[in-house]
Amino acid sequence: MSSLLELRHLRTLTALRDAGNLSRAAELLNLTQSALSHQLKLLESVYGGALYERKSAPPRFTAIGARLLELSDRLLPHVDAAERDLARLAAGTAGQLRIAVECHTCFDWLMPAMDAFRARWPEVEMDIVSGFNPEPAALIPQDKADFAVVSTDGNGLTGVDFHPLFRFEIVAILSRSHALVEKPWLEAADFAGETLITYPVPDEMLDVVRQLLGPSGITVQRRSTELTAALLQLVASGRGISALPLWAVKSYLDRGYVKHCTIGRGGLYGSLYGACASRLSGAPYMMDFVRLVRESCFLTLPGITLL
Amino acid sequence: MSSLLELRHLRTLTALRDAGNLSRAAELLNLTQSALSHQLKLLESVYGGALYERKSAPPRFTAIGARLLELSDRLLPHVDAAERDLARLAAGTAGQLRIAVECHTCFDWLMPAMDAFRARWPEVEMDIVSGFNPEPAALIPQDKADFAVVSTDGNGLTGVDFHPLFRFEIVAILSRSHALVEKPWLEAADFAGETLITYPVPDEMLDVVRQLLGPSGITVQRRSTELTAALLQLVASGRGISALPLWAVKSYLDRGYVKHCTIGRGGLYGSLYGACASRLSGAPYMMDFVRLVRESCFLTLPGITLL
DNA sequence: TATTGATAATGAACTTTATTCATAATCCTG
DNA sequence: CAGGATTATGAATAAAGTTCATTATCAATA
After folding, report:
1. Fewer Cβ atoms within 10 Å of its own Cβ: the N or the C terminal residue of chain B?
2. Is the CB of B160 under 7 A from strand C?
């Protein structure tokens, strides 16, 4: 009798468009693929026709689907804006967001999220905590930062909450002529004698060391540089091998500038978490920031998985 | 974590504003007062404050409530429009809406609903079936009308659906000096010897006759005229008494032009139904028309109850 | 100031709906 | 045509939303 269309459905539809397929849309919405499939099926039964062609990627929407998407585009921004206004009404206070990072790569994806955030919460003062801190989460209890990007949850810090961000594969980067490119995957022993080219961070912050080389007692030479491009240049010219997030080097690999190789049997994976003071964990602007980070990363970084 | 605001909530809020209080809002939405109360409570717990001041009629909204209403006003018309577009996509065919009425009073409330309908479904041809038909529902199987306003459901007509509209009290209208105005209510015997002033319709169409005079075997003189104003003029000048819907004469009563009196112990009530061909019963434009009629009547006719 | 009537709130039972889980079907690609 | 990825499906589960029955609150009024 009465209309059954809800915002939930519109969110699903836009997620489907943004994510490219149902499974990814589900990930974006923190739901299962099944849930969305059922949702769409229901809508289709109500409106008497398919909403999109299933077998196409990116999805091609039918007239019905397109009309609903048009509605979504018109509505959701207003809903979003209203909810932020309401959060502001509730909190009153403006707040600040001082961001600390542990590694350089973070900036690649942090910037777009920060830009989006600035547009949505103009009254929140945003800053980057200068310098690179080996353990940025420690800055939070000291009230020197409000948000820190870290690669491990729960450091035993009290009063600090960790929000899962995403998980990504770390691959070994080799020059095109390197002998090891033939191997299906690299084991710890393969690194012996090689020079490991990395960002300038302490050993214990490197996932390759922490998860592979450390446990197996293998030590390697280290050489470091700040920029990804410089790092790859060194690898390409045979000065050593590196281990970097797949998403960070995807474009270089596609161009064939360097080669890559899985590390360990099932691959080596790193995870990132956003740390913030428990006191701010529930603050709408903080939740929105975490959401924006997750969303923009998921939509722009190839091959990552949301946590 | 994720937003829980849904269109449902926005609809509740606008209904609350339109209807004036929670109970009436519930009636408008075909829900219970309790349901809406729970809904609002939930919203208030989420947004951390009241949405409106309960004890005031009409409701006074807080900043939070007002912001949500602002959102509703921006969103709901678009949702509505989209759903109509989708219905058009599904049905394809334009359709027509020929309306037949049984009594003159209907036009008072039919007009605004028809105007609203015309704006929403410009492609549907709307017409009024000329002449007053003692039994307009009969025109539907003959395909001479698509919608008929009748005062009884289920005439034993097959292929015709009856949609409950609303229920209203019918009161006796007396001149200010009439002896009967002193009585707490009128019984059948009180009508004996009086002239009953009515619209020009057959006896069996009049609720007073059908429900009160008929069963008790009392017959009265009849005199009829087409216009409500003329009818009241006759009553006021002592030519007889009348029995009319309370909502139709409310303004005359408020001005003290005539007096009124309850008919029978618990009062006399009439009900109206919208009849249409079963085949069209589920057509979006027909459902929308019924909805518009119910809604506009509920919001404009004083003292009625939705069925 | 009690009484009544109207409106709103509440907690528990209930119903409906949404989501997940486990699995099967389908589609695409190499 | 196998294997991987995506989608569909039915049943089970979880989570709501809604109603019911009752109580609380408030305003008008006797």
Report:
1. N
2. no
* Strands of B23-95, DSSP E: 52-53, 60-61
Separation between Cα atoms, residue A11 and residue B173, nearest integer Å: 56
**Is residue A169 a contact partner of residue A265, using CB atoms and an 8 Å limit?**
no
Q: Which helix (H) or strand (E) holds A222?
A: strand A221-224
Give the residues across from A1 on adjacent strands.
none
Per-residue pLDDT reduced to its tens digit, A116-161 = 888 888 788 888 887 667 788 888 988 889 999 988 776 678 889 9
For A89, the closest of B63, B74, B83 (CB atoms) is B63
User: Which residue in the block uniquely carries the two structure tokens 């409950």?
Assistant: B164
Mean pLDDT for each 10-residue chunk of chain A (307 residues)? 86 93 92 93 91 85 91 96 89 82 83 88 84 81 90 79 91 90 85 89 85 89 87 90 91 88 86 90 89 90 87
What's the DSSP call for residue A59?
A: P
Contacts of B79 in chain A (CB under 8 A): 3, 5, 71, 75
Beta strands in A47-159 (DSSP E): 52-53, 60-61, 96-101, 125-128, 147-150
* pLDDT-flagged residues of chain B (< 70): 1-2, 131-132, 154-155
- Contact status, residue A175 vs residue A238, Cβ threshold 8 Å: yes
User: Which part of chain A has CATH 3.40.190.10?
Assistant: 94-158+279-301, 167-269
Phi, then psi, of A118 in degrees rounded to 5? -60, -40
pLDDT digits (tens, 9 = 90+) for B73-126: 999 999 999 999 998 888 777 788 999 987 777 888 998 899 888 888 878 888
Do the chains contact at B1 and A287, CB–CB below 8 Å?
yes
What is the dotted CATH code of the domain comprising A94-158+279-301? Answer: 3.40.190.10
Domain B97-307 is of which CATH architecture?
A: 3-Layer(aba) Sandwich (3.40)
The gap between A188 CA and D7 C1' (Å) is 39
B240 in helix, strand or coil?
A: coil
- CB atoms under 10 Å from CB of A81, counted, come to 14
The contact set of A with B (CB < 8 A) is 1-3, 5-8, 29-30, 47-49, 63-64, 67-68, 70-71, 74-75, 78-79, 82-83, 85-86, 89-90, 287
One-letter identity of residue A223: R
Topology annotation, domain A7-90 = Arc Repressor Mutant, subunit A (1.10.10)
